[in-house]
Amino acid sequence: MAKAVVTVIGKDKPGIIAGVSKTLSDHNINILDVSQTIMSDIFTMSMLVNLAQLDEEFNKLQDDLNLLGKRLTVEIHTQREEIFDAMSRV
Amino acid sequence: METTQITETINMVSEEHLDIRTVTMGISLLDTIAGTPQETAKNIYQKITTYAKNLVKVTQQIEREFGIPITNKRISVTPIALIAGKATPDEMLYYAHALDDAAKAVGVDFIGGYSALVQKGFANGDLSLIKSLPRMLTETDLVMSSVNIGSTKAGINLDAIKLMGETIKAITDKSDTANAKMVVFANAVEDNPFMAGAFHGVSEADVVINVGVSGPGVVKRAIEKVKGESIQVVAETIKKTAFKITRVGQMVGALAAERLGVEFGIVDLSLAPTPARGDSVAEVLEEIGLEMVGTHGTTAALMLLNDAVKKGGVMASQRVGGLSGAFIPVSEDAGMIDAVKAGVLSLAKLEAMTAVCSVGLDMIAIPGETDATTIAAMIADEAAIGVQNNKTTAVRILPTNGAKVGDMIDYGGLLGTAPVMPVVEKSSADFINRGGHIPAPIHSFKN
């Protein structure tokens, strides 16, 4: 099963975690791990999530999260987990 | 997984311009040769559009999944002079248009391999190809060309150099920018994914995926963090950064090859700049400690950079190939352009720099009235550096009619803008006009 990392960076405001979680749940995606901090008003969150499959569904999820990011004026990246491992592990 | 690891990767892409510069599909055309140029051209179109049909789609999906930009999708093919052995210069255009049409049909950015290998001598196809260059480069849009005129094993073909000097002038008479699509090599490599010099060598597998990774901005940012520390710390930092960047290329290349059902060739980690600020090799050299690129110490800093990049890359990839190192094109690098404009970076210094980095005199504008033999002599100097030192060198020089030293010439997009640089005005004509062949250096005899 593939995993993806969803990262959210932007100015803190109510509804960020709610919005991201709702979108994930709408796509029937399970959250495996969350790490979140606020550094001088900047909200940063990384979520590790399970991807049932890597096809059109992934693209739709990414599109929906991008839309959400625009609405909340935060930056949301949805990337497969392997890219982060590739860089830091031999 | 560490959060810092995630942030680091995201910053590399969003702020430091890390990108996969190109996914290049190498396609052998040896099995397309038919009785007539028209039939062969048809086969070429057929083979390319069959194998590369999903190249753009697959790479775009990978971009999406990993959040890493893949700037160019390209194709390289067997040197056309080998495929068109019997063709006349006019007939060569059938092949060129087949390549151009196929590239447009599959939606790639460039197709390379309109090439001839003449380091030891000319065959009919080689001469036809070179003679067709002025027409080819102005009648097609996406076809890139290269001519290899020397190698450590074979020596330097001075007749070919003379011919290329004349050809570059003839191309200039048709177009101010077409020379940007053509490069003259010594010791050309057969698996280079970068343009204009990409071609698919005859010893390569039928179809392969080669990947070119870039990220001068990432290297610069990493060196910023070791300000004032000793030079071996700089070397280590570059190595580690190069390792990380190459790992991305390895992953993307392997995945693209798997999805396209072809073999994975090589990763070429070359710090290739783009005209964007912060994506400049010159700025990396300046971060190492030079006030401006071109000053004393530039060659040493570049040598360290180029070597450390290779060392980091080799460990990170199954197979490293291509040119792997640092590119120093003038028009494509904001820092280089600044240094030329300031009168700090000269042609002579650029030539010295090519002795210790990946390529050669690249994307340099010179006055249009420069004599063909002077251009040829520049090519000869570069070839000498490459042949004697067992490395690739190249010349992509851009004479511009009517332009004076200091004028800015715009080549568009990734090719950038270049200030016209002065050349030495004393003649090299008697040297070039001797013709013949410069023998291979003594250390090439290793058997």
From TrEMBL, chain A:
It holds the Pfam family ACT_6. Residues 5-79 form the ACT domain. InterPro entries: ACT-like_dom_sf (IPR045865), ACT_dom (IPR002912), UPF0237/GcvR_regulator (IPR050990), UPF0237_ACT (IPR022986). It comes from the Bacteria. Belongs to the UPF0237 family. NCBIfam families: PRK00194.1. This is UPF0237 protein C122C_1218.
